[in-house]
Every structure is written in structure tokens, then in C-alpha cells.
């Protein structure tokens, strides 16, 4: 699809800023995808092209965390496997689920995340050891289910995943933010492969946005590694509340 120069510039600026902020908060797609709709990009193409860009954003965000040694391969390995399987299923659903259902899923999900983070407001500042088998099982199930949603649309996916890892897996906000960035590399990559197979990705627009998102996410992640967990929590909660209000308003 051919966009005007002004529309393309607006998208580049928006995607760049959202990539910086989204390293902590996630939920980029709740803003970027609707804007692509407004510029006339066909809904499924917008979702697929955005997912393609998210792959590079997640890679850019993961690099600073990798250099700082935030990743625990033993903890992340089963989560990555569940994510890959879920994301394949989610991407396949894009061809059959309606846009109205997508909006409903986003609205309900963001309300859930908001309540989740409010009622669990004391977690995420210190790492919790000795996670119970029950909690671990719950995290695995939620990772799989969210992987389906992440492959389907991704709007709010990383936000909810961050909340799950903080609330049930004993991670600090820094650890959860780092872990979800790496997991989202695999989720976005697998979903993008399915979208490519379906011929839904606009590569001309996608490559421009991919470079933009990679740079923005790298800058954002470099900043995050210098913040403490309290500040990350404040940023996370504030943004989640704003996005929850926005999605409810858009749906109504």
C-alpha cells in the first residue's frame, strides 16, 4: 500500500516514541495498529505488518538486557516453547476472527491487567524465591494462553505477560521487563512467519517501521537498565491505567 509522505512521517515518529516507552509498558499495538487503520491500511495487513516490526523492536530491546546478564536460560526455556506454540495458533486465528472481537478481547484484557496490577501493588520490587508448583503451573498456562493472544494481535500482550511474571513468578519488574522482551522476539517472529506465509505483510512499510522500532527499543532498553524497580513499577502502572481507559472508550 502507498502512503503519503506526511502519513509515513507520522507513523515513523509514533512507532519510534511507542518503542521507547513500550520497552517498559508493552501495549504498543493498542496505539500503533489503530493509527494504521486510520491511514487506510487494511486491518489484517496492519496487524501483520505491525507484528513484523515488533520482532525487530523486541530484538533491539533484548540486546541491552542481554549485555547486562538479565536472562536465565533455565527459567525462560519452557516459557519460550509454550510461547512459540501459542503464537502459531494465534497467528492462524487472524484469518477467521473479526475485528470487533479483537477490540473486545483488547478491552477485557486491559481491564484485567489494570485490576491485576492494582490489587497486587506490593510485588515486583524484590525477587521472590521458592515459587510453588501451583504458581509455576499457572504461569505456564497463562504464558501459553497469552502466547495465542500475542500471535493474534499483540496489543497488551507484553503488558499482561509482565504482570503475570511479577505477580506469580516472583520476578522483579526489571527481570519481568527483560524476560518479556526476549519472549516477544519468539512470539513476534513466529507470528510474522505465519503472516508471511499468508501474504499479509506489507514489507515496504514493514522494513521502515522495523528499523524505527529497533532503534527506539534499543534506546528505551538502555534507559530501563539504569532505572530501579520502583520507577519501573510507577511507569508500568500509570501507562496500563491510561491504556485501559483508552481501550474502554474506543470500544464504547
Instruction: Provide the number of structural domains.
Output: 1
Structural class by sheet pairing and helices: mainly alpha
Proportion of residues in extended strands = under 5%
What is the first-to-last residue Cα distance? 30 Å
Give me the Rg, rounded.
17 Å
| Largest sheet entry | none
The residue-averaged pLDDT reads 83
Secondary-structure element pattern, one letter each = HHHHHHHHHH
Low-confidence stretches: none
Please give the number of β-strands.
0
Shape: globular
Helical coverage, percent range: over 70%
Walk me through what this model shows:
The chain has 252 residues and is an all-alpha fold. It has one domain. Helix content is 80%, strand content 0%. The protein contains 10 helices and no strands. α6 runs antiparallel to α7 (157-168), α6 crosses α8 and α7 (157-168) runs antiparallel to α8 (173-197). The protein is globular. The two termini are 30 Å apart. 50% of the residues are buried. The mean pLDDT is 83.
Task: Provide a short characterization of the protein structure.
The protein has 252 residues and is mainly alpha-helical. 80% of the residues lie in helices and 0% in strands.
Q: Topology, please?
A:
Elements: H1 5-25, H2 28-38, H3 43-67, H4 73-93, H5 99-119, H6 133-152, H7 157-168, H8 173-197, H9 203-224, H10 229-251
Helix pairs in contact: 1-2, 1-9, 2-3, 3-8, 3-9, 4-6, 4-8, 5-7, 5-10, 6-7, 6-8, 7-8
Amino acid at each position: 500500500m502507498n502512503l503519503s509522505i506526511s502519513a509515513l512521517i507520522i507513523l515513523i515518529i509514533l512507532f519510534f516514541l511507542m518503542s521507547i516507552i513500550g520497552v517498559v509498558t508493552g501495549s504498543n499495538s493498542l496505539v500503533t495498529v489503530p493509527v494504521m487503520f486510520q491511514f487506510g491500511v487494511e486491518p489484517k495487513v496492519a496487524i501483520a505488518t505491525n507484528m513484523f516490526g515488533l520482532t525487530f523492536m523486541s530484538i533491539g530491546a533484548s540486546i541491552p538486557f542481554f549485555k547486562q546478564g538479565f536472562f536465565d536460560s533455565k527459567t525462560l526455556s519452557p516459557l519460550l516453547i509454550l510461547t512459540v506454540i501459542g503464537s502459531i495458533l494465534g497467528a492462524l486465528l487472524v484469518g477467521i476472527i473479526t475485528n470487533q472481537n479483537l477490540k473486545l478481547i483488547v478491552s477485557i484484557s486491559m481491564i484485567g491487567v489494570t485490576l491485576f496490577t492494582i490489587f497486587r501493588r506490593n510485588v515486583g520490587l524484590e525477587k521472590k524465591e521458592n515459587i510453588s508448583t501451583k504458581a509455576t503451573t499457572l504461569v505456564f498456562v497463562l504464558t501459553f494462553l497469552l502466547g495465542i493472544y500475542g500471535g493474534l494481535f499483540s496489543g497488551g500482550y507484553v503488558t499482561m505477560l509482565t504482570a503475570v511474571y511479577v505477580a506469580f513468578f516472583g520476578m522483579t519488574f526489571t527481570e519481568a521487563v527483560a524476560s518479556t522482551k526476549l519472549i516477544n522476539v519468539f512470539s513476534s517472529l513466529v507470528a510474522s512467519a505465519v503472516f508471511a506465509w499468508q501474504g499479509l505483510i506489507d514489507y515496504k512499510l514493514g522494513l521502515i517501521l522495523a528499523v524505527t522500532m529497533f532503534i527506539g527499543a534499543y534506546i528505551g532498553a538502555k534507559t530501563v537498565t539504569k532505572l530501579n524497580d520502583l520507577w519501573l513499577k510507577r511507569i508500568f502502572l500509570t501507562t496500563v491505567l491510561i491504556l485501559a481507559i483508552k481501550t474502554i472508550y474506543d470500544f464504547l
